[in-house]
Amino acid sequence: MPEVVSPPVQTAEPRQFIDEIFRRQQQRQYAVARSTTRERIAKLRCLHEAMLRHQEDTRAALWADFRKPAHEVDISETICVNSEIRHAIRHLSSWMAPRPVGVRLPLLGSSATIHHEPKGVCLILGPWNFPFNLNLIALVGAVSAGNCVILKPSEYAPHSSALLKKIVEECFPPEEVAVVEGDVAVAEQLLSLPFNHIFFTGSTAVGKIVMTAAAKHLASVTLELGGKSPVVVDETADLDRAASRIAWIKCLNGGQTCIAPDYVLVQASVHDAFVEKLKTWIRHFYGATPEARQQSPDLARMIHDRHFQAVKHLLDDAVSRGAHVAFGGHNDAIDRYIEPTVLTAAPEEAAIWEHEIFGPLLPVRPYQTLDDALAYINAGAKPLALYLFSRREKHIRQFVAETRGGGVAINECALQFFNPELPFGGHNASGIGKYHGESGFMEFSNSRSVARQHSPIPTTNVFLPPYGSKLMNLALRWLSRWL
Ligand code: NAD
């Protein structure tokens, strides 16, 4: 395990405290970069054990923050983080190994290798909606790659943030990994420092602020952002499968999931049947009556009053413009509860078609042909996730080929997130960069080319000035034709 130096005491002004941790990490980064595979694995094992030790605390923290159901905590936080850690432990030695690559004929006598050096001192700014998953999986990538990290979780999940700090402190000295808690002012202070890499998960609007701040120091960025993730259900789909998966992932975490289905485009011939299936599955999952659903222990609450009001506004706005509440519609400000709600016939000008919903409201609209559905999706910003329910191979191929953005799942929702072999992230408005598994290691690494001349009579001799020898001209002619 790394040498442990006593932590700076947090009695100074936060600004001085942050500056002091940053300074210590800058000094420490070269020692951390030199850490062996075995040493990095030991750190990852410590994190894995801490997650297991604090599994019950994790459930309690997320229940206190927004009544997140314990089973959802296990599925979407603890198990995800531990699966990423185990994957990294299994593969770290091959990820870290320099990769030899081939050399072309004119460079004969030399060798070429790609090395992965850590970026240095990294900042991770995280959201509140999956505080353990989204902060710690990024941390696994950063630690695997040999970086020092300051991690700032969101201020809106304070119980989770405090536990994250505790878990990290049990595994890392602060000059290697430190959790700094705080609000936007603290995030701004952190963003003013010359980090080597900034990994941000959150809204597209704040992502732009982060990228602007990073530009001042030319720090590289990973932006894991949000947006409207569409689902297409065609007339060949298994409607029970489609409705059950869409309802489940839409309501998971109270709908506050970046890869939740935002809206559904359903082929007109099965529109009504699909809406009926949605109602059946929501009743089955969460209760037969509005009262039973509000009392269900399996539905999380909106994170804070402002967010409750934002989601309620999307519902009220759609209804006031003529949308039909096909299911649900109840809400309770005191409880910050929004009932799982299915909306049909929401008019084009309703705000629900414009903004990421981030709550358990599901607008459904019919389409005639797959071309129509794809044109609708492609007219908007690139989504973070795209889902298709279909049994027609041609439709599946067309959906993948003719859409742009983040990951795709066919006949399931969120499947693309759970496999550490798959890179996770969006494109443009939904994000920049990828992580999970090897992609996370690479995101926190700088790939360096190392070319080495071994030959006592290097081929480069031919190109030395003065230019124009016969041999040089011959070589240039040959190279321009055959290289
Ligand atoms: P947010 O953007 O409000 O906050 C994220 C982090 O940024 C927090 O730590 C916060 O303190 C900080 N922050 C907020 N305002 C800031 C400012 N002006 N300057 C600097 N830092 C600031 O996001 P959120 O509400 O926590 O999360 C919801 C959003 O995140 C949704 O849009 C969702 O789609 C997206 N999201 C994306 C992913 C993903 O993996 N792509 C995952 C979860 C959430």
Your description of this structure?
It is a single chain. With 483 residues, the chain is an alpha/beta fold. The chain folds into two domains: 15-225 and 434-446, Aldehyde Dehydrogenase, Chain A, domain 1 (3-Layer(aba) Sandwich); 230-420, Aldehyde Dehydrogenase, Chain A, domain 2 (3-Layer(aba) Sandwich), CATH 3.40.309. 45% of the residues lie in helices and 17% in strands. It is built from 16 helices and 18 strands. It has helices at 14-33, 37-53, 55-66, 70-96, 131-144, 158-171, 184-191, 204-217, 239-251, 271-286, 290-295, 305-320, 370-378, 393-401, 437-443, 470-482; strands at residues 99-101, 110-118, 121-125, 148-152, 177-179, 197-201, 220-224, 230-233, 263-267, 324-327, 331-332, 337-338, 341-344, 361-367, 385-389, 407-410, 431-432, 445-453. The protein has a seven-stranded mixed β-sheet with strand order 10-13-14-9-8-15-16, with helices on both faces. A six-stranded mixed β-sheet has the order 5-4-3-6-7-17, sandwiched between helices. A three-stranded antiparallel β-sheet has the order 1-2-18. Helix 2 packs across helix 3 (55-66) and helix 4 (70-96) packs across helix 15. Nicotinamide-adenine-dinucleotide (NAD) is lined by residues 125-129, 134, 152, 154-155, 183-184, 187-188, 191, 201-203, 206, 209, 224-226, 258, 356, 358, 384, 431. Nicotinamide-adenine-dinucleotide is lined by residues 125-129, 134, 152, 154-155, 183-184, 187-188, 191, 201-203, 206, 209, 224-226, 258, 356, 358, 384, 431.
